[in-house]
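Hi P.,

Sorry for the delay on this. The queue was packed all week, but I finally got your sequence through. Input first:
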Amino acid sequence: MARKNSLREVKGLKGSKNQEVFAYSDYWEVWEQIGEDDSDPDSWQFLADGLLSDCIEAVSPTISMQLDMQLMRERSQQPQHTDFLEELLQRVQKRQAEIRKECLTKGEYKKDGWHMRSQHTREQCEYMAQNGYPVINQVEGS
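Then the structure:
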C-alpha cells in the first residue's frame, strides 16, 4: 500500500515551487551563442559543465568584459570619482548573484549570449529535496 504524504510534506513540496529547488541540482551546463540564430543548434558552443559554481566561473570572463565595456561607456559620458576596478568587481559579483538566484529558482539563465541550465528537472530536484538522495534511472531488465 502506498504511503500517504503528511500535510507537512505536501505543504513543503508545494512551497518548493517558489523556493530555490534547483539548489539540489549538482549538474549544470553552459553554452555560448556563436551564431546569429539562437534557435539553431549550430549557433551554440559548449563552454563547461559541472557544479553551478563551475559554470558561473566559466562565464565570468564574458561577464567581466560586458560589464567593463558598459562601465567605460558610462564613464565616458559622465565621469565618476569612484574606483573603476572596485566598481567593476562589485558589478560582476552582483551579476553573478543574479545569475545564481535565477538558476536556483528557474533552473536556467538565458541572456547575454549564453545559456546556463540544470541537467536535472524540477521534479528530480523536488524528489531529491524530499528524499535526500539523487534519482537513479534504472534500465529495464536490469
